[in-house]
Structure formats: C-alpha cells, structure tokens
Amino acid sequence: MENINTMEAKKQQEIINVLKLQFAEMEEKEGRKKTFHIETFGCQMNSRDSEKISGILKEIGYVETDTEEADFVLYNTCTVRENANNKLYGHLGFAGKLKKKNPDMLIAICGCMMQEHEAVENIKSKYRFVDIIFGTHNIFKFAELLQTRLISDRVVIDIWKDTKMIIEDLPNDRKYSFKSGVNIMYGCNNFCSYCIVPYVRGRERSRNPKDIIEEIKTLAADGVVEIMLLGQNVNSYGKNLDDPITFAQLLQEIEKIDGIERIRFMTPHPKDLSQELIDTMKNSSKICKHLHLPIQSGSSRLLKIMNRKYTKEGYLDLVRRIREAIPDISLTTDIIVGFPGETEEDFLETLDVVGQVGYDSAFTFLYSRRTGTPAATMENQVEDNVAKDRFDRLLKLVQEGSAKSAGRDEHTSQKVLVEEVNSQNPELLTGRLSNNILVHFKGDTSLIGSIVEVYLKESKGFYYMGELLDL
Ligand code: SAH
Ligand code: SF4
Ligand code: F3S
Q: How many angstroms separate the CA atoms of 4 and 345, rounded?
C-alpha cells in the first residue's frame, strides 16, 4: 500500500513540474503571473484540504488573491447542513458573471458536496461554465485534473466513491507560519443518523503514527509551535492499523517532539473518550486545556435514535471525570435542535445538560434534513417554528452560561500564543489562551508566532483585554 501511495505522490509531483514550466512560459508571454482564489466552506478538514490545493497551485506558479476576480477560482464545499449548500450556489452565480468578462477564467469545485450525485448533476446542468469537479478522496490528484482540463478544453469530473489511499508529501501551503492542522485520520464510521459526513468522507482510515510524527517534526523544525490534530472521531484513532495504537499513546509520542508547545485536537466523540486520554491530558504540559465534546442532545432517548452510543448520564459522568482530573479545562460542544421526534421533554433535557455542564461556548444548529441519512426519512420531523423557538431558548441559555464561565481567568496571568494584528484595532495584537479564548493586548508585531505571558485585565465575556508582561 505504502508503495502505491509513494508512487502516486511521485507521479503527481512530476505533473506539477511539467505545469510549472508551462506556467513560467505563459508568465513570460503575458508579463504577469496567473492568480488564484480558494473559497473554503465547512470544517477544519476542508481548511486543511484547501491548504494542500493552495500549495500545489503556488508551486505551479499561481499567486493568491483575496477575491474571486482571479484566473482560477476553487470552491471547497461543505454539505453538513442545507445552508452550506445554498452558500455555494450564491457564489457560483457571481463566478459565472466574472467568467463572462474573463472567458479564460477557470472555475473548479471540490469537497464534500461533490460526493453527492444530485449536487453534481445540478451543477452540470445549471452551471455549465464550471471547468473541474472533484470530490474529497482525490484532492492529491488536483494537478493532474488541472492539466487534463488545460489540454482537453472540456469539463473534467473525477469523483471517487471511497478510497484506501493516503497520499501525503505533496506541496502544502500553511495559512499560519506558527500553527498547523495535521490530519491523523480520514473519514468516519459512526453513522450518526442525522449526519452526511460518513457518506461524503468515506470509511475511517488512520494515518501511520510514524508518518504523523515525521510530519510534526518537520513542522516544528519549520517554526510551528502549535498543532491541531484533525479527525472526525479522534478517539478511535489507530484502532484499525496493522499495529494498533490508541489516540492517547499517539499524543504521548507527539508530546516528546521538541519545539511543539501546544497540542490541540478536534473532534473527540464522547462515546469512546477513554480514561487513558483524560490521564494523558492531565499529565501533559503541552495538550491544551480545552475539550470540544459534542453532546448533540441531552435526551438519552434521542441520543439512541441519533446513534450516538452514549446516554445523558454517561456524558455527565464523563464531564465529571474530566473536571476532576483537569479542573481548569474549558469545555465546548455542538448541539442539534429539532431532530425528528424531539419533544419538549427531550429539549428540556438538553437545556438541563447545558445548565449543568457550563460550557464556555456551544455551536447550536437547527436540524437539517440530509438526503440519504436515516433521519431524513423519519416521519415525525419537527415543525420549523417549534424548532426555531427551541433554538432561540437554547441560544439564550448558552450565551448566559458562557458569559459566566468564560471570564473565570480574569486578573490572572496566562500564556498566550500571539496570532495576528487585531483586525479592528491595528494597535492591538490578538492571541489565544490554552483554553482557546482570545486575548487582545498592546504589543509589537514581532511577537506574532511566539508564546508570551499576558495579564488578563478585563473579561469581556467571550474574550479578554490584557496587558503584556515583561519577563
Ligand atoms: N465528527 C464531529 C462532528 C462533525 S459535523 C462529531 O461527531 O462531533 C459538526 C457538527 O455539525 C456536528 O457535531 C453536529 O452538531 C452538526 N450536524 C451534523 N449533521 C447535522 C444535521 N443534519 N443538521 C444539523 N446539524 C448537524
Ligand atoms: Fe457525523 Fe457522527 Fe461521524 Fe461526527 S461522528 S462526523 S456527527 S457521523
Ligand atoms: Fe462539511 Fe465535509 Fe466538514 S460536510 S463539516 S466540510 S467533513
């Protein structure tokens, strides 16, 4: 398997080299470099994929622009909820107009939505100006698809149902120089009954721990101090490898890498968050004090129909054990409102969990019916106005709770990773605490990418205003 993966990476690199020459010639003729723009929707998986595609484009000789007025535009789509799909169609309408002005413009679409047959058919019939369509399993082939399009002059569509391949070692363009996402696994085997992800991202595949460690060492040597390990259910990492290893063991190995100061991960599933992981977090000096632990619903009855494989009591007990081991941990969550059959009693159970746990923040979603998932054909879909009313009540409780809990570090000094110049006030820097909360403070831009000590002068609910401490 490894051989096929390496051979494929080599083949793609050769195509990139050919395109590079071709684009250098074009640049000389036209007196300018071609431009590209990527719009990324959805989760960190997609952001990471976009970095890989951007890496290939830059190596070929494209330069990035911040608007869709570019020679090459790519939409990396998400389909987890209906509104994610609608966003794409809005953008495509705009891109179609741009292409009328610049007929040489290339428009490509990839990502989760392209794994759905109906969406692709819709684009083929209504948005005929699209040049390249590919899915989630073959982004490593992007250079080849671009080359095919340049030669053939016809729309190129390449969508795979699933794959066992894991192709790495291709160009990569990190958005930040000091922090990076690292895929540790792809796909999902959980089939929560509302969720489209297993259908569009395929079966679970863990990367070899050696490859992950190597990648992180290379990142550390390149100045990266914080990594975010990515997977749809990181707790089941390693179970299907030839030499099985647990997620906690992987974390312990990563902890040893010099230069890496902060380790985050996304997303753990409550059903198999082990005591081993809790202990590893407790004993670690690098794993951040933050757990995103999606509950989805507080009703054990609904959790069963959602196929989440834990109960309200089990979840609360898990939270208790986590807090016992790591008292200053920040907990955040995802909650779905209006899942089919949700009654007022079910919903009150959700409010009860939110009240009991005291999340620092929570992403709340209105249930969205995804064709092909078991929940889509359940008969007792909740009426829109009922769901909306519950959503508003939940949001209020979440906001009250986070205003209370998020300010608990006020008047302490904490380590902050400085990330950027504040987008609203250029005199301020913005950084992140270990528990993921933002801090704004005065400081020199040379600090970006380093970890500094900041006194948290004032809590503003969702962020702090701080003062840089000289050490
Ligand atoms: N693998 C992660 C979640 C990935 S999807 C996990 O299991 O926690 C991110 C979030 O989108 C989910 O946690 C869920 O809250 C939400 N979501 C997924 N499908 C949805 C749907 N059909 N309607 C509304 N929200 C949904
Ligand atoms: Fe979707 Fe469940 Fe997999 Fe998360 S664990 S991606 S919610 S199926
Ligand atoms: Fe969306 Fe795909 Fe992520 S459906 S949430 S981009 S895995």
A: 53
